[in-house]
Amino acid sequence: MHRETTLEEVAERAGVSRQTVSNALNAPHKLHERTLGHVREVIAELGYRPDARARGLRTNTSSLIGYCLPSDDVAGSVNAVMDQYLHALSVAIERTGRHLLLFTRATHGSELEVYRELLAAHSVDGFLLSDIRTHDPRPQWLAERAVPFVSFGRTGDEQQRGPWVDVDGAAGADQAVRHLVHGGHTRIGFLGLPAGNRVGDDRARGWLRACAAAGLGDCERMLVHCADEHHDNGDSARRALALPESPTALVAANDALALGSYAACAERGLRIGEDIAVIGFDDSPTATKVHPALTSLRQPVEHIAQRLVARLDSAEPGGELYEPELVVRASSAP
Q1: Distance between CA atoms of residues 20 and 81, nearest Å
Q2: CATH topology assigned to domain 169-299
Q3: Among 10, 231, 284, 310, which one is least packed by beta carbons within 10 Å?
């Protein structure tokens, strides 16, 4: 029969005291980040799992971190990147002896109602916020109540409350444009998310900034917003290709829009990677399944998940911004 690893064995292997291991599990804010990371690595290596029931009675905690699933329109679409993110987040949380509690947004009344109910019932010890919107009320509301939380994303407020981690979408779009300019393109269109979408607007800003820096002239006329990113089916690309001076390259705010452009280009007899270049964002698994394979910007999902958990436990305000990686494939061949 398999014997469970004890807290004392973790302490011995890590070369720290029993109290330090206990702090890593129950009061991580008391430890230096390097010490905390080392102890967590040993916990993962030995497969140590604390007795959640005993710890909950002792500390009046639930060992659960709340996570609100995306809205129905997002959840109803195929989103492999979100699956990767949730898996990485679950692994990072479980390494600290806790688990994610998934819940959905309230369909009636205030969106904060479900957060209020979970806190009142002592169901969670804190929250990992995702699907952050411009001027999102959740960070402010949680900060005012001294509830531990961390945001994956930026609200756009000058002084965003609480810690946050985000992907620099503007820097990613900038990379894409510079790659295309290097390949000789001078008419680079952008397939954007609906106007007002925080993530889409950030990526569009990076595209526009890079086009201006490259001296490509009036680029805004080549910005096309989709009406619905989950049901676009190439419509935004068709509109871009119908412009008086059609683009020789397209940068899309996500892979779904980029992949939709394949049909739109085929309808006009354009060969992707030869007559026109296409670049997506998110580097979804489908990017390598299409022909030609799609050049895309890959988000550092696992690292972001680890940093979110670390920032949740440190509770220090301020944010961290990470650039995506441009993965060049045949769709953007010079």
Answers
A1: 36
A2: Rossmann fold (3.40.50)
A3: 231
